[in-house]
Fold:
Amino acid sequence: MPGKHAAFLLLLLLVSNLSRTDFAEAAVFDTSKDSWAVLGGYGQSIPGWGRTSQRVETIDLALRYNHLIFDNLGSGWYRGFHSILLELPIHVVVSPDVSSMIGMNFLACYTFTANQDIRPYLFGGGGPVYSFADVPGMGSELNGNYQFGMGLSYRINPAHDFLFEMRYHHISNGGSEEPNDPLNSVKALFGITF
Structure:
């Protein structure tokens, strides 16, 4: 598992070093290019992946705010922009218990803009998660999560994009309580920007 984390950090370092920030337009306080999105989808933890022992299935709904930080990074195929995503997800647990989990995610995102109609993006980050669900092995109601994934943004019209993304999602209490069986999940989400 540490090798996967190191590979992910190396990928982020490589992407950031390939991006030329000397010509980037900083937009830290400019909200004119910001957007909102609503995403929905399905997620499932996979027993045997890491220390995950329970199969937990969720229906997911998230409100997302996308704040542009740097525009016009890079050139050629890796031209794009860096943004921060703030998500407020609700995970409705449908198995093994019917309940919910709520959270807040802070995600760094890089969107490739060489093609203006179909734009792939990479993201990663995390935040707190509160679980109302009675999942065996989760020793705490207050947990943390980290996640990373990739997606595609398809331009419908100048005001709206259709989003599709896949993400790895990890939830655990970080060893603050016992037991601490993590949930390592895969999620597929669809959404629309406005």
